[in-house]
Amino acid sequence: MEIVKMEHVTKIYGAGDTRVWALDDVNLSINKGETLAVVGTSGSGKSTLLHVMGGVDTPTSGNIVVDGKDITTLSDDEMSVFRRRKIGFVFQAYHLIPVLTVEENISMPILLDHKKPDKEFINNIIEMLGLKDRRKHLPNQLSGGQQQRVAIARALANRPSLILADEPTGALDSTNGNEVMALLHDSVKKLNQTLVLITHNIDLARESDRIIKISDGKIVE
Amino acid sequence: MGWMIRLSLMNMKRRKARTVLTVLGVTIGVISIVSLLALGFGVKKELLSEFENENTVKTITGSGGESYKEKSKLLTDRTLEKFREIERVSYVYPRYEIGAVVNIGKYTTYTNIVGIPTEQLEQLKLSENSALQGYSNKPGLIFGNSMGMFFYNSKTGLSYSKGEGERLDALVNTSVNVDFGYGDTSFSTRLKVTGVLEGDEDDYSEQSQNIYCDLDKLERFLKRSSQSNDLSIQPTDANGNSYKEWIYTSAVVVVDDIKDVDFVVKKLQDMGFETFNAKEYLESAKKQMKMIQLLLGGIGTIALVVAVIGISNTMTTSVYDRINEIGMLKVIGCDTDELLGMFLFESGVLGFAGGLFGVGMSYGIKGIINKVAVALLDFEKGVVLAVIPLWLVFTAIILSTILGILAGYIPARWASRLNPLEALRK
Fold first, then answer.
1. Conformational region of residue A59, where left means phi above 0, alpha means psi within -120 to 50, and beta covers everything else
2. Which among A122, B208, B268, B271 would be 20 to 30 A from A35, CA to CA?
3. Which residue on chain B is closest to A160 by alpha carbon?
4. pTM > 0.80: yes or no
5. What is the pLDDT of residue B152?
6. Do A76 and B328 touch (CB under 8 A)?
7. With 80 as the cut, is the pLDDT of residue B29 above it?
8. How many whole angstroms separate alpha carbon B279 and alpha carbon B334?
9. How confident is the model at residue B331 (pLDDT cuts 50, 70, 90)?
10. Do B327 and A95 touch (CB under 8 A)?
11. Using CA atoms, how far apart are residues B250 and B208, in angstroms rounded to an integer?
């Protein structure tokens, strides 16, 4: 079953002579439960691909259907709702909320959706990511690897349709990076989630079900 | 909602110094407005309390003014009867005043002796050993409590109260020398002091600087005396002839309700009489007080405006500080309205806290004003110079909260409309 379907997606930045085709007629479909690695040089358009797929950026043209819904037709507010229910983001720079505890940070997407967090499920995630002893800690009391694990837990918390990770290990040393990546893959598999992962570490990419390469806004292989 | 409030409060707690300083700014603004207004209210109340006495305001004094030559404008019993017929008039009584030189031994003063009807005389509050009337057919005098300071010894230059060091009460049941009129037509008599009004020498009231006596007795006494002494105690007509009826100096008209004052004043003036009423003074005094209060309030407002700019500044800095956090909140699906609400809540809390502390500290300042200023400025003990009405408490808190929210609006709107990706990159 397809969870993402992109058709003729183009994203152009700037105007006139300075126009940049960040995405150029991209067609892509991703199946439910699949893990997809996106590789490419910097400036190739891989981040833009992730952003338009996750609804934080809008394509200049083309259609993007996520979980049966064409997100290119949504208003800003509908897009917010879409993001909080369907997408889990993990960024290179964790972006945790500094004044909230680990547990509160993880529950945030559920709170934003005006729901009561499912304690059992949250505990499950916390345990899965090895954060059991850290739940009452503030982000600045954690190591980089631990912070990224919190960010992953947050992305999983609202049981989204799609996890989008933009170089999640980019800020970590290789030991920590490998550990985090292993946890990410494990969690995604256990919860039967779909993962799109941007990386330029080819070893990490190989652990995914499928790899695509982007160059100058086009999928080349 | 809950997370929003918690996130706001946690962020304020995280930047304690900034939060405290901003709240302090608002607190100072609120203190200056509230305590300056409180001072205004208190002073106004204190200054006006004397006039605010309903009976004073309800009383209109009517007189014929300079028009003694016109018969219809003479204050006779018949004229007073006409006053009684005016709508909304409660009661009317006449006053007759006559100038006299009064001697207490070596102490002399020139003053008016005021005759009022027995029922009015009975309203006066007398000191302990006083009586309203003597048994003599001469009028008995009732001294106002401040009269002692008006009698002077021409040799020593001291007043009776200073020179003798005695209270006026000592005069009760003694006789004083009274010279009515002047020049060839003057005549002397001795009149008994039957009473002294209650109160200390410096307790000022409408009555404290007068000598009162019974109107009937005064009238009869003067009539008797004028026959034998050719005393001109009554106005005459154009030809210099006396009128048949007794003419009073003034008429006191008391109305049913303060609201009726203007109506009755108008009627009396239409009839050609001059009027005096405390309400006019009251109104001009009130106007002046309002001016003073506006001025004081204006100074306070400037302080509050500066404080509000402080809130706006704090909120702008706060948005800059948390721009990544805002970006991430947007990425994980926080919508515009909620973000706006979160920042408005924060600036509202700053305003509210400032209002709360400001009002609280204003109470302290009120206490200090009422203790220190009253002592320094030599007011009587118990005089309240600053008053904080309850409505001011609520208005100050609500207003500073609203101002806080308004001050936060522009930074809050900016935060809520940030592009999430750009915010994350900063």
1. beta
2. A122
3. B332
4. no
5. 85
6. no
7. yes
8. 63
9. very high
10. yes
11. 19
Residue of A nearest to B420 (CA): A56
Mean pLDDT of chain A: 89
The distance of A8 to chain B (nearest Cα, Å) reads 23
B382: contact with A, CB 8 A cutoff: no
Asked whether the beta carbons of B292 and B299 are under 8 A apart, the reply is: no
Query: Given an 8 Å threshold on Cβ–Cβ distance, is A89 in contact with B331?
Result: yes
Chain A residue closest in CA terms to B421? A56
The Cα B392–Cα B358 span in angstroms is 12
CA distance B325 to chain A (A): 6
pLDDT block averages, 10 residues each, chain A of length 221:
91 86 91 92 88 92 92 90 92 90 92 87 89 91 91 91 90 85 87 89 84 90 74
Distance (Å, whole) CA B349 – CA B358: 14
| Span B144-173, pLDDT tens digits | 888 888 888 888 888 887 777 667 788 888
Which DSSP letter does residue B292 get? H
Question: What is the DSSP pairing of strand A162-166 with strand A87-90?
Answer: parallel
Domains of chain A: 2-219 (3.40.50.300)
CB atoms within 10 A of CB A128: 18
Tell me: the pLDDT tens digits for A135-174? Answer: 899 999 999 889 999 999 999 998 898 999 998 888 888 8
Strand pairing partners for A89? A164
Name the residue among B226, B214, B142 with its Cα closest to residue B176. B142
Query: Cβ–Cβ of B336/A80 closer than 8 Å?
Result: yes
Annotated domain spans of chain B: 2-52+284-425, 65-272
Contact A84 B333 (CB under 8 A): yes
| Per-residue pLDDT at A163 | 93
> Can you spell out the DSSP letters for A51-82?
HHHHTSS--SEEEEEETTEEGGG--HHHHHHH
User: Which of A:127-166 have CB within 8 Å of B?
Assistant: 154
C-beta atoms of B332 and A97 within 8 A:
no
ipTM at complex level: 0.91
A192, containing H or E segment: none
B2 contacts A104? CB cut-off 8 A: no
Could you tell me which residues are beta bridge partners of residue B116?
B214
CA distance, residue B322 to nearest chain A CA (Å): 9
User: In the structure encoding, which two tokens stand for residue A94, read together?
Assistant: 């964790």
Pair of tokens at residue B348: 């509202």
Residues of A with CB below 8 A from B334's CB?
80, 84, 112
Nearest-CA neighbor of A88 among A120, A113, A115? Answer: A113
Q: Please tell me the distance from the alpha carbon of residue A36 to that of residue A53, in angstroms, as a whole number.
A: 13
Percent of chain A with pLDDT over 70: 100
Which residue in B10, B332, B336 is closest to A83 by CB distance? B332
Asked if residue B33 lies in contact with residue B254, where contact means CB atoms within 8 angstroms, the answer is: no
- Verify whether the Cβ–Cβ distance A98 to B420 is below 8 Å: no
**Cα separation, A153 vs A90, whole angstroms:** 9
